[in-house]
Amino acid sequence: MPEASLIAARAAESKQGEETAVLAMSGTLGVTDAFVVTSGRNPRQVRTIVDEVERQVKIGCGRSPLRVEGRDDFGWVLMDYGDFVVHVFLDERRSYYDLERLWGDAPRVDWASELGVRPGEAENQKSDE
């Protein structure tokens, strides 16, 4: 699991990304190692999440996305880092495309534990960052 994907999940959560999930994709898809999936309530929040993910991954790993798609309307932004992909949706688009169900065979990663964050602590850290 790329450490940068865990940093991306934590960054999304810090900006109130909803139901942030990390899916281990290497055994399922073969093109990338992980999907980070999260959502926001409105385009402004989606943009804020995208900006924070980009900032935190750059600070934590010195990496920038290879490409970003969806900044035109902030309904579904895809940030491709090569070994992992971040999907930031508007809530209703996330429900419509339902990637977690589509890739239901992919194991979910307990990203908070992987980062050494205790359960419930991720929510408390939102206001700290």
Walkthrough of the structure:
It is a single chain. This protein has 129 residues and is an alpha+beta fold. It starts with a helix and ends with a helix. The longest helix has 19 residues. The C terminus is likely disordered. It contains six helices and six strands. Helix 1 packs antiparallel against helix 2. A hairpin with a 3-residue loop joins strand 4 and strand 5. It has a six-stranded mixed β-sheet. It is globular. It has one domain: 2-Layer Sandwich (Beta Polymerase, domain 2).
Write the layout of secondary structure elements.
Elements: H1 3-14, E1 18-24, E2 34-40, H2 43-61, E3 67-69, E4 76-80, E5 84-90, H3 91-97, H4 99-102, E6 108-109, H5 111-114, H6 121-125
- Provide the spatial order of strands within the biggest beta sheet: 3-4-5-2-1-6
List segments where confidence is low: pLDDT < 50 over at least 5 consecutive residues: 117-129
Tell me the major beta sheet.
6 strands, mixed
Mean pLDDT: 87
* Annotation, overall tally of beta strands: 6
Number of helices: 6
Rg is: 13 Å
CATH architecture assignment name:
2-Layer Sandwich
Gross morphology: globular
Counting helices, strands and paired strands, the structural category is alpha+beta
Distance linking N and C termini: 24 Å
Query: Percent helix among the residues?
Result: 25-40%
CATH topology type: Beta Polymerase, domain 2
CATH superfamily: Beta Polymerase, domain 2
Q: How much of the residues is beta strand, in percent? A: 15-25%
The figure for the number of domains is 1
User: What is the CATH top level name?
Assistant: Alpha Beta
Order of helices and strands: HEEHEEEHHEHH
